[in-house]
Amino acid sequence: MNPTLDFFDFQADIYDRYQSPCVPRYGDMIGISTDFIARMVSHRDAPAILDLGCGTGNTTLKLKQTLSRGHITCLDGSDKMLALARRKLGPQSVTDFCTADLQETGWADRWADGTFDAIVSVLVLEHLPFDRYRDVLAEACRVLKPSGWLVTVEGYAGDLNHRLFFEEMAQREEQAIQAGGITRAEMDEIKSMSAANEHHYLSSMADRRDWWLDAGFTDVDFIWQYYCVGTLVGRPLR
Hints:
By secondary structure, the chain is an alpha/beta fold. It has nine helices and seven strands; from the N terminus they run αααβαβαββαβαααββ. The protein is globular.
């Protein structure tokens, strides 16, 4: 297992108590992504959607609330996260749960070309080394229908935006501790484990856009940004 997955396995039980109160605009990241997908696929009878790196199921839950129909597949590299997603979402909300490490090849071999109407990934792909990131883009492009959309939320490089985002995060973390949502000991352990195991590979937004174009996407654009985090969308060029 890669170290980043070790971190998310460790964090699984407290992930929801940390993520929403502590990560700036986390709800917006999910809401804007899922609203975009709903707008693009709502005319289809039963859109097939892949939640790539579903975690505890927060994005899939929002999709379920936003779309009146559709089949959502949850994929994650952490079995602990997937178990929590199953519990949160219930048996009727998705068609499949898949365990796969995106840092390994073959994660998408189970699906034929043009399987999905949309793929969404929130705060996941930034954990991939650049070569693996580009390979994952190519596979995502393959398993998307020609009219499908890839929607990702990722962190990007940029000194000022990075500093402002994490200053706000630190304030929110302290507020979460004071409110009793998470203990200081838990927060200290999260920080320690993150520093030791959680890797981020941050490029410029321009580089990411170019890599999408190289992978075979068109209509690539940023539809939302908050400091160093942005939502990027594109569809296969075929």
